[in-house]
Amino acid sequence: MSTILAIETSAERASAALLHRDTLIFREVDGVTTHSQTILPMVQSLLQEAHITLKDCDAIAYGAGPGSFTGVRTACGIAQGLAFGAQRPVIPLVTLLALAHACREKSGASDVLAVMDARMGEVYWAQYRYEQEWQIVVPPTLSAPSDVIPVREVTACGNGLRAYAADFKDKPYYSPVWQDLMPHAAQLAVLGARAFANGQIVDAAHAEPLYLRNKVALTTRERQEKAERTAA
């Protein structure tokens, strides 16, 4: 079994996890605005608990996005720096897939709709189906909540459901049960081990975040136009 260190900072919860000898341990901190100050101490704590060094890890997985612009850059940058230092590859993983995996662990669902709050009246979402391995049904997408249309009956999860409950409440797939789930390094470590076994690794020099939105902020005019479209 491979040893995978995982980092996730795409949302308001920062987490780090270590999968070593079939044992999964993790650390997490909620509500921290500067994830870069919390991740490295968590990583050091995990390595100390497992009595290993960074060079004993086979690869470093990270939540590549989508998510907070600062958050996904932080995860990518830290993973890249650690991987360079230890001469190890990285494994970029989609945060929505980690969210779907968390939902499956909690609910046992095979068809999962993962929905994350993208702010500015939009959500990041994707649909996955689990059949021995995860399959992409609808790839990661940025849209208004009203444009979230799953292909089949699904179990929906993620904080996007809570952020835009008024938009989702009448949808046949809506349920508040799993609306507080967020991407977590624990799921990234498990998914990272599978990716490593399948040779899905990347040289640290090529580590990149996954962005679905090109601009961080809307102009005043764009905000006004979006508000007018919403009110229409």
UniProtKB/TrEMBL annotation:
SUPFAM superfamilies, A to Z: Actin-like ATPase domain (SSF53067)
Domain Gcp-like: residue ranges: 34-149
Domain of life: Bacteria
Gene3D superfamilies with a match to the protein in the record: 3.30.420.40
GO cellular component, one term: cytosol
GO BP terms, alphabetized: tRNA threonylcarbamoyladenosine modification
PANTHER family assigned: TRNA N6-ADENOSINE THREONYLCARBAMOYLTRANSFERASE, TRNA THREONYLCARBAMOYLADENOSINE BIOSYNTHESIS PROTEIN TSAB
Protein's UniProt name: tRNA (Adenosine(37)-N6)-threonylcarbamoyltransferase complex dimerization subunit type 1 TsaB
